[in-house]
Amino acid sequence: MIAHAVDIAIEELNGFGAAGDAYHLASESLELTVADGVLEKQVAEKTEGIGIRAFFNGRVGFSYTTSLARSDLRAAIEKALFGARQLPPDPDTILPRRPRQRYATILTEDPLYDAATLDSKVDLVHAIERGARAVDPRVSKFQQSSFQETRTLVSIASTNGIRCSYRSSRAYGSCECAAVDGNDSQVGWSSGWALSAAQLDGAAIGREAGTRAVQKIGADAWATRSTNVILDPWVTSGIMASLAEAFRGDQVLRGKSLLVGKMGQGVASRIVTLIDDGCKTDGSASAIFDDEGWPTQRTVLVEEGVLRSLLHNASSAERLSSEPTGNAAREGFMTPPKIGPTNFYMIPGEHSPEALCALAGEGVLITETMGLHTIDSVTGEFSIAASGLRFSRGVLGGPVNGIAIAGNLIDLLHRVVALGSDLRTFAGGGIACSTLVEGISVAGR
Amino acid sequence: MLTHEQCERLLSLLTSTGASYADVFVERRELTSLRLDAQQIEQAVTGTESGVGLRMVRGDMTYYASTNLGEFADLETLARELAAVSDPSALQPFLLREKTAAERNSIRIDPRTISFGEKLQLLQRADETARAASEKITQVAASYSDSVRDILVATSHGDLCFDHRVLVTFVVHAMASDNGEIQSGRKVVSGAEGWEFFERAENQPETLARLASQVALRNLEAGNAPAGTFPVVLSSSAGGTMVHEACGHGLEGDFVKQGMSVYSGKIGERVASDLITVIDDGTLPQKRGTERFDDEGVETERVVLIERGILKRYLHSRKSAAETNMAPTGNGRRESFRFVPIPRMRNTIIMPGEQDPADIIASVDKGIFVAEMGGGEVDVVSGNFLFSITEGFLIENGRITKPIRGASLIGNGPEVLSTIDMIGRDLGYSVGTCGKDGQGVPVADAQPTLRIPAIVVGGITAREQS
User: Fold this and answer.
1) Domain boundary residue among A171, A197, A214?
2) DSSP string covering B410-458
3) A191 with A227, same domain?
4) Mutate to test the interface with B, among A71, A185, A186 (most CBs of B within 10 A)
């Protein structure tokens, strides 16, 4: 019955003589939280809603509703059409045609998702905190360890004949703790994901959070200078997420991207190959179609340093005489589709983290940053807080914190000199390896 | 919205199995959002969402369930499951009384009565003004949004609270290009006000568009900020991101209770120089963080956090207050019915001092002047924080000279607050959406012009500039 809501919406759109599409989302989630050995929170959520785009007389309106009764769907369409009539014509937004290619078959849910008991999930979240505790007696403060699982059903239909749906399931674990040594307290954070609770290794998440806290104890001063920097996979993934914005076709069309006019040109060092792959096996952001119902695909964005493609939805592809790349993205059912990356990554290198250090000689390994959200993805300028470990003569030394790294994202890509083999897949589509970059400004005191 | 009787029924279920506390949170949010980008309407969204969050606390454990699905019978089932009620026919009745509190924000013109077309005009006025500023302004984006939320909180203390919350927000983003270089400037205004907000000159699209384009054009001329440790003057116009990050988050009761905050266990101790008084005030009329009640039915108040450098109080939700034997402070907030409330800031302010802002600038030989701050972040455990400079200048020999771009300042909260040595008699506000535990809530921050004698500037080293 639920899956029919999009079909009713299309019938109603047709009844109004309008074109359009309907995006239906139904999700159920559970979250458990442990703090300092005590299970303290159990949160359950059920959400359902439908977002409807209506195209009429060259104008586009959008509305949503959380009630799926035919009369409420009709009211939402009326609201979208009413909005559309008050807006100027929008020739740039189009509805995707019915795709010719087939949808990929990839695993986006664990069929045994339901098999895990509540008790086993409670055990899992306790195991996360125990994992952190076991690292070192100095890991002694616990903000929270949490487990979250979500199951989602997405269905899309359009007046152009798109009709598709898929289920997905995800389980996440995270840990936030602190190591205390005298007056020195340092936070450690980690997270992990899987398709279900049964596939999640809780202890490993806690262990990583504890390890990251302890390694920051005893930091000393850093003298401002430019030096070689190794970004660990966490940090590389965070910076790549800012970079991904620059590949959005709509932003390039508006002239609001670092990559305007750079197609076919060198935008990175020769060892950099960037991929967006929405149907990657084991990708955390994999889905069989994007948020307009277009099939996901593997797109080579940068090949050996040269810009080859952008990320598109139907509208931006049409304007650039290109094909959609399966990158239409919505933030839930309450907004119309824009463009976003899926599994966005750099092809890894062959160096172990130790080998990267040896190669770099002098510098700093960055393991944590603050302020990624302040990066300007139009100019590419970044100036973010960082902490990590210094290295000298190719060997890792003590921690540094309260430092700042600054530069420009494109400049950073050109300065990549070696890549690690330690590829790691994070929740939300980030996939990254350690990255050695030469000549970066690192400010300290 | 649920009826009085329906709330009583849900609370009699939630309190029937040994709950120490329970509440029902009902929300109806109407949202309109319009965005103009590159002279095209990029987004025009209007819609309504309603939902309910049920909470039951027993011992150390909080049970919470939320849904945006409709029928009352489903909510009864949810409440029964949450409280593990075996026999719902044998319940004690529960009685609620309406609790009132002074209305802090007056709303004269409900933004829902204004047409899409009029709202769209604001965007077009911003676009035209910005483009007229210079041929170098190559792209303009402007967005408008209004949110009208009706909130009901029914608590196991017997209180039934209603709040009507209106927010309007307007943002202008101007992009300037010259010789292949791109720079941008952004201005945002927001208040707990109706459509009349836009009657005031400082909130009009022309004003914001002019300011945003000025910043974008100036950034084209700007050099890189230097890297290293320098004295910094934060102008009152810079807004309050610094106080928000340097001490606000560290004073939130949940971090404090877990011993995670650098300010844990320091009530009565000196944590800042005696020039520093910090308050969080949820009662200031029309400010973005102002509400009658918090999201668990506690009246908002003016909380003095630090008085002349001495730590006085923390910000509490009901839970963090109960766990530390303190009174709740009206700071239990949630993004929506989907979330359990946690301690959050509202309008956080460093109180003004007595000095002339011009004297503070004149006191610095070589340093940085911050005219506007952007976003920030803090690690409450070490107290290390960062905020970005969106408009900055060099200070040379006591004078503001060349514009600088794209840098952030990195400091340690208690250290910075203890070393601030000059404080102005002015006060400037900024607005934002504060993120914590995946929940965004509207806030405002304010501070006077002040001097930090030494802080790390995340700029570019001389070697990389050359």
Assistant:
1) A214
2) EEEHHHHHHH--EEBS--EEEEEEEEETTEEEEEEEEE--EEEEEEEE-
3) no
4) A185
Q: Is A445 helix (H, G, I), strand (E, B) or coil?
A: coil
d(CA B232, CA B410): 11
Q: CA–CA separation, B247 vs B311, rounded Å?
A: 11
Q: How far is the first Cα of chain A from the last one, in angstroms, to the nearest whole number?
A: 63
Range of the domain at A248: 219-445
DSSP state of B18: -
Candidates A36, A64, A79; nearest CB to B258: A36
pLDDT in tens, A40-62: 999 999 999 999 999 999 999 99
B138 touches chain A (CB under 8 A): yes
Query: What CA–CA distance (Å, rounded) separates B127 from B209?
Result: 7
A93: pLDDT strictly greater than 90: yes
Chain B residues within 8 A of A126 when measuring between CB atoms: none
b/e sequence A61-91, b meaning 16+ C-beta within 10 Å: bbbbbbbbeeeebbebbebbbebbeebeebe
Portion 200-259 of A in contact with B at CB < 8 A: 224-226, 250, 253-256
The whole-angstrom separation of Cα B368 and Cα B222 is 13
Is residue A425 located within the same domain as residue A318? yes
Asked if B410 lies within 8 A of A385 by C-beta distance, the reply is yes
**C-alpha to C-alpha distance for B385 and B411, rounded to whole angstroms:** 6
pLDDT the model gives residue B127 = 97
A66 lies within 8 A of chain B by CB: yes
